[in-house]
Amino acid sequence: MMVNLKQRKVNEVIIAGVISLIYVFSVLLFSGTLFSGYHLVDDHEILSYVTAFQNGTYSWKTIFTTGIFDYFAEGIRFRPLYITLRLLRSWFFGTNYIAWYITVGMEVVSCLILAYCIVRKMGGRVLQAGLVSTLIVTGEQSEIWWRLGPQEPTGLLCCLWCMLAIKKYEESPKLSKGLGVVLASFLMAASKESFTILLPSMGLFCIACDFLESHYHNLWDGIKKTFKKNIWIFLGMFLIFCINIYVIVYKVGLLSIGYAGIDREAGVSGYIIMIQGMLKWDSLRVYEGIFGVSVILLLISLICGWRGKQQIEKTSFVKKIGKLLLGLTMLSIVMGQLVLYARSGMSVRYLIPASVGFIFFVFHVMLTEMSNKYCRGVLMGVGYLTLIFLYLGVWQDGRDYALQGRLLNNCFATVEKDLEREDNIIICINDETNNSFALYVDINLGMKHVYSWNEEMGFYSLSNIDGELGSFEEAKCIILPDNMQLSDYEIEENDYSCTGSMGYGLMYLKKG
Q1: CA 30 and chain centroid, separation
Q2: What's the predicted TM-score (pTM) here?
Q3: 3 state DSSP class of 197
Q4: Where are the transmembrane segments (predicted)?
């Protein structure tokens, strides 16, 4: 009987994995994102690392010295695990972008499987587990399915691994499982700042899971035994948290990036105002709608007396506290992210990991408190309708990303065909795009005469060469933002012909 039960669980996870694989890779395959190749945002880092490995500047030892052993390095971001994996993949895959897309897609698939297992471990039904797992990664944040730069897929994977490890440890405390929790906590926190601040929430999750699983006689007895049971996990998380915060504050800096970080001058009232403004963003409207519906349904279930007294009496006081702590755990995840992103705003990939806390809170914590089957059915229906709506949006976003890649590759093909190596190119979009374009044509096409222009600096080389440029007319190719025209830069339009969009801007080639 026990063997059959274990086999059924294994089969269920396998089926969930297959469905998750289809769910993610159907988009990657049929939208074309899997074959969209090099993009000017984020992918220049891959090209730079691969080139360094190929010319001998980097070796496999660099993965350790620049990645793993560079934990305390100064920089604009805290993301040691990201750098390590970036170097490892660059060394292993090179510029095989299909392999890169597959690995990122598999990270997302793994996230779906882990989230599904967590909900099932917590007593959720199959449809509930499927809804929670898919909603966490579906929506604007689904750009992590195909973009190669964001750290969120790895961070989310480690976060969910940590939660599942905690759940398993609280059910059956063993040294190996405890070490697994600490290791998952370390990797999660090393992914990015937004995952470092999840460590206190993970500690609270340990207590909540233990209380829900336990048969403690009273609260004080539960507190003593829980802290004794989890003492080494708490110490490990606390040590990791302190080290990471030290590096972030004293090495990286709280304001290393102008649009992000902590605003020391804003104060509590300033942050309240920033968060209120952020809650009006379109990217959060769907979640605010889901939350509003769930609150109304929960109130209906409670006020109308559909929650029986006998059901309440059967639940011990300690387990009630466990439910409360579980809810607070998920809310703390959301609130921490709201504060962290108050300056920059929360949208696209920055919805993760807040989506973990929100989705778990609504579709597990609140749903389980609805004793009335009609209220539960309505909320599940709203959830799945929302999922369908968001999934259709994901398809469109995937197609847009793939189109952007095709346009860019067409642009590079035109440059290679119609320009000579010594011809001048000017690109004026933004710093990252400009430098990424210059790096690609330098490494792959051997063209080093790439420039940009702004009012303060005038013309400046993007390829670090000594040659100077005096005017736009000296360029054979000019690339401008979609919302700008040649006349805006006082360039004679009759001298150039527009060859079309390159996904990031319009490309003009000089006639004759």
Answers
A1: 22
A2: 0.92
A3: coil
A4: 12-35, 98-119, 231-249, 286-304, 324-342, 348-367, 374-395
